[in-house]
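User: Sequence in, structure out. Go.
Assistant: Echoing your sequence, followed by the C-alpha cells.
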Amino acid sequence: MEKFEVHILGCGSALPTAHHMPSSQVVNMRDKLFMIDCGEAAQLQMRRSKLKFSRLSHIFISHLHGDHCFGLPGLISTFDLLGRTAALHIYSPAGLESVMRPWLNVFCRGLAYDVVFHEFDDKASQQIYDDRTVSVTTIPLRHRIPCCGFLFNEKAPLPHIRRDMIDFLKIPYHAINDIKQGADWTDYEGRLWPNAKLVFPPEPARRYAYCSDTCYLPELSGQLQGVDLLYHEATFTHDDEKRALETAHTTALQAATLARDADVGQLIIGHFSARYVSDGVLLDEAKTVFPRTILANENLCVKL
C-alpha cells in the first residue's frame, strides 16, 4: 500500500502551553509533503518528525489567525538558507499575501525561489489542488473570520500486476504499464489473456479531512461521509459549550457526534484549550459518542 500519513506538528489552541505547539500538520502522500497550517515551531517540529524540507512545496492555511500562520516567515527564510530553488505554493483565504509580502520584503529579501500565493473562496467548497495522486478540496467552516478545512482525496492506485503471470507468459517489461492501465495480453501462441487474470485489484482510494477552527456544523456530515480519517478541533468540553459558542469553536462531544453521523473510520481531536490540565477529559467525552477517537499529540504519525 502506498504511503499516506498524517504527522501532527502542533495541536494546541491560541495560547501556547508547555504541552502543545500551535496548529500545524504535514500530510505525507507517497513521499510528497503537504503542510496544513503553520503555527510557530512548525519547522522545528518537522525536524523532530524527521520530515524532509525539500519535499514540501504546498502549504494550506485554514484561516488568518496567528496560531495557524505565524510560522510561515521563519519557514520561508529557512528554505532560502537551505538553498531552495523550487517554488513554494501557499493556499489561503483572501488577505494572506498582503500581510506576508511586507514581511518577505524585509526579512526574506532576495529569495532564490518564488513564493506563490493562491486565494480561495471560503464560502463554497472547491478543488484547489490536483495532481496524479491526490486532489485537495476546501471544506467551508464557520469561525470568527473566513476559515476552511481541507479534504485530501487519494486518486485510485493502479492494480498490481501478478508476478507469477509475468513469468509464466514471459510478458516483456514495456507491456506492464499497459496491463496496469487495463489492457489484455495476447501471448506468443495467439491466446488472449483477460486483464482480470493478470492483475490483483488495487487498494481502495483513501480520504483525509482536516476541520480547523469552527463552531459545530452538523451539515458537514455530507461532505465528510465515510472519510478514513477526520481531524476535528475539540477546543472545549461540553461543560464549556457556552464558551465554545461565543468563540466559534467545537466541543469534544460535538466533534464526536459529527464523526459518528459522517461514519468516518477514525477521529483525531485537537486544538485543545489551555484551560484543561489533562487532555484526557476531552478524549473521555468524545469516546462516549464515538469510540474510535484518539488524541492529537505533537509528532504523532497516523497511517491511513
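User: And one key feature?
Assistant: The longest strand covers residues 4-10.
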